[in-house]
Write a structure and sequence with these properties.
The protein is of the alpha/beta class. It is built from eleven helices and 19 strands. It starts with a strand and ends with a strand. Bound molecules: inosinic acid.
């Protein structure tokens, strides 16, 4: 048995879906443990492209159980849409399960998220407007609906009697938004119950016990990335969940001892969508070049991603707080035509020359920081067809080994293209 967690080690969009997809082949149970449809994952297989938001991409394989875990927040209409898209492609969904403890994103959550983003005069986060923050806020405030409530008229009625007066007051007085009657919400919930009915896993405890007893392989699928973690990321420019490896324990139903490895997925460069600090961001033509070659546009929102050189300062931090045991480096082939490749090894404070090799968590000073780079020679060769580490050009190997040295963490996988086959297993 070897249970692995796949997490994003940067600001999301690192190519986790491909790595998860590869590892899913050898897993029996795949659990998505946090986030919601703010995530966007693309998997390319046999010339077909699939876009996932909530459903684990492991569903593309037969005989796998894919659980949308208790730590997730689910926008029912979006879930339905994703299910229908997969059905259209004739994907077998018999292994798809949803935890009854997952939290429901209600219409007021997306409305408040949209309102806050559109009207923020200061402190705009640049969210995906999918209601993620407001849903997690209500979860923590103990005024959220869980999937299981949809099937318990008593729980639903009692909860709504508490939730609606509070919500309506807030919607009307704080945001000037539409309020909801209990009848309206009960009607919505009736529809939600139908959407989830084929997938709700009421016997999840027995299922997890069985997988554990039979020593089956479990893959925990993280969304977003460590630098967007609500505890450790560039707060407040973060998402509202825990994409770190530790999130797998709270968001799945298994404890930390079930985890053998944490694979941190990182691009050979860095991208970010939304607002927030990004010390190695390239706002010049080099940034445009990376965006164009790397096709760096959001899957969920279509927004152009901000691009920059590999930031070993944040990555070292990610390895620590994310619990990363090895790295999957993606999009290495984007550098195939580059003469030089830079790695940021430290930050320098422009005000006083102070050097930071450990990540400074006070993001309000990041505007004063500039990257200190180590420059590596490019390999100027197409590596997208290479499958064995030893066949890589010398300069490519030098680059990967330099990263391992700085990060003190091994690289286990190198991705050299979007297809499943375009992968080098380093150890
Ligand atoms: P939220 O998760 O929609 O609340 O957005 C909060 C921040 O996380 C914003 O900067 C988003 O752009 C970012 N974010 C959320 N999900 C993803 C993702 O899957 N990839 C990259 N960034 C994300």
């Amino acid at each position: 048995m070897s249970n692995k967690v796949v997490i994003g080690a940067q600001w999301g969009d690192e190519g986790k879906a491909k790595i998860t997809d590869l590892l899913a082949q050898k897993s029996d149970l795949i659990i998505r443990y946090q986030g919601g449809c703010n995530a966007g994952h693309t998997v390319v297989t046999d010339g077909r492209t699939f876009k996932f938001h909530l459903i684990p991409s492991g569903i593309l394989y037969k005989n796998k159980i894919c659980l949308v875990g208790n730590g997730t927040v689910i926008l029912p209409e979006f879930f339905e849409h994703e299910v229908n898209d997969l059905k259209k492609e004739n994907i077998d969904l018999s292994g798809l399960k949803v935890s009854p403890l997952a939290t429901i994103t209600m219409p007021w959550h997306t409305e408040v998220d949209g309102y806050s983003e559109d009207n923020a005069k200061k402190g705009k986060i640049g969210t995906t407007k999918k209601g993620i923050g407001p849903t997690y806020t209500d979860k923590m405030a103990r005024i959220a609906l869980k999937i299981e409530d949809l099937y318990s008229p008593e729980a639903l009625s009692e909860k709504l009697d508490v939730i609606l007066p509070l919500k309506n007051k807030q919607l009307k007085e704080v945001y000037g938004l539409k309020t909801y009657t209990k009848e309206e919400v009960l009607d919505l919930c009736k529809n939600y119950a139908k959407i989830f009915e084929p997938y709700v896993c009421f016997d999840w405890q027995d299922m997890l016990r069985k997988f554990k007893a039979e020593k089956k392989n479990v893959l925990f699928e993280g969304a977003q990335g460590v630098m967007l973690d609500v505890d450790f990321g560039t707060y407040p420019y973060v998402t509202s969940s825990n994409p770190i490896g530790g999130g797998a324990a709270t968001g799945s139903g298994y404890g930390p001892k079930m985890i053998d490895e944490v694979i941190g997925v990182a691009k050979a460069y860095v991208t970010r969508v939304g607002e927030g600090p990004f010390v190695t961001e390239l706002t010049d033509s080099m940034g445009d070049t990376i965006r164009e070659i790397g096709h760096e546009f959001g899957v969920t929102t279509g927004r152009p991603r901000r691009c920059g050189w590999f930031d070993a300062v944040t990555m070292k931090y990610s390895c620590l707080v994310g619990g990363i045991t090895s790295i999957a480096l993606t999009k290495a082939d984007v550098f195939d035509t580059f003469d030089e490749i830079k790695i940021c090894t430290a930050y320098k404070d422009k005000r006083n020359g102070k050097l930071y090799t450990s990540y400074p968590t006070d993001v309000y000073i990041h505007k004063y920081l500039e990257p200190v780079y180590e420059t590596m020679q490019g390999w100027r060769e197409n590596i997208s067809g290479i499958r064995k580490y030893e066949d890589l050009p010398l300069n490519a190997k030098k680059y990967f080994e330099k990263l391992e040295e700085i990060l003190d963490t091994p690289i286990s996988i190198i991705s050299v293209g979007p297809d499943r086959e375009q992968t080098i297993f380093k150890k």
